[in-house]
Amino acid sequence: MIVFVNGKYLNDNEANINVNDRGYLLADGVYEGFRVYNGKIFKFQEHKQRFQRSLNELKIQYTLKDELETIFENLFEKNSYKNSDELFYYIQITRGVALRDHAFPKEKTKVGIYAFVAKKPLNEKAYNEGLKVCTTPDNRWARCDIKCISLTANCLAKQNALDNGFDDALFVHDGVITEATASNVFFVKDNTIYTHGATNRILSGITRNFVIDLCNENGFKLSEFPLTVDKLKTVDEAFLTGTTLEVTPIVKINNISINEQKVGETTKKLQKLFKEYLQNNFYKKS
Ligand code: PDD
Question: Which GO terms describe its biological process (predicted)?
Fold first, then answer.
């Protein structure tokens, strides 16, 4: 696989970074993950805006110009992805190279940029049959709104879930369900759709925001209000949203079956609306 690293396009096994890169030493960097359908990026401007915001929040002095587009086009070309669909475009920017110190380098550093494009098809089984998830304490830092490359708590939660026979974990902060390890979570209860507000406790998912738009445009009742764990038993449906998940149903949470472990009607309607949007915007021949 050809990747991009600090201005060069190289085979991934020949790509190197400096050991003093602050991303490597201190996880001092941010990233973005894009979905590519039929060669085109989904909600590119929204991702770009969030990426710039993440950079600003970490005080990494770097203004994005058109490098996101250029790097993607080159990686797409160099890896001959023309006939591949459902790609994942990853890019991260770190504060750059300096001898290890918590304080930012006094001299302005050149940021470290790494990017790749890989095939990542939708998990059809999960999409059609739903996931089984557990809940776990949300022990992450309080700035989950920043797409920071430091993801240890998310990795631990995901692995613990897998080790215990679940597919993923939902984080719980002060009794409130925030989000999953790499996606946002929605619940349907008494014909209202609930999801946590876009606060510092969650990443404001591009897919989340798109699904909210779909709900509003199609007459679904939606509330950006979080669900508490004690209400889980009363939930009619649940689903995750994320760049590589679209709308993926949840059919079991801990030992609680949701909708008798069948994908619910609201979830199916949203999946259909999502697919229609993709069809019209990415696949339709003009
Ligand atoms: N994850 N919440 C968290 C903690 C995430 O890591 C992600 C995305 C989301 C969903 O955001 P979006 O809809 O913009 O993909 C929510 C990416 C895909 C990842 O880390 O690979």
Answer: amino acid biosynthetic process; carboxylic acid biosynthetic process
